[in-house]
Amino acid sequence: MPRINDVGGQDGFGPVLEELDEPMFHADWEAHVFAMNRALIGRGLYNLDEFRDAVERTMSHESSYYENWFRAIQTLLKEKGHV
Predict the structure, then answer these.
(1) What is the distance between the alpha carbons of residues 10 and 20, in angstroms, rounded to a whole number?
(2) How far apart are CA 39 and CA 31, in angstroms?
(3) pLDDT tens digits along 19-55
(4) 63: enclosing H helix or E strand
């Protein structure tokens, strides 16, 4: 079964909607999730490939981008015995 990033050569996803003057983060907690992920990767608790895999395994289309990131971080920390 293909995963979310296996979309090479596919179309029909619709236009990408740009938000004028879009901020990098829409809420403070999103910036915290971003920073936490950078710190955990930097400490060697997991790597970028593991993180991407966790995002793909745990993704919910009803959740926001950073909610999916947070879920992936929680999953990795549990799987690796850090929580």
Answers:
(1) 27
(2) 12
(3) 889 899 999 999 999 999 999 999 999 999 999 999 9
(4) none
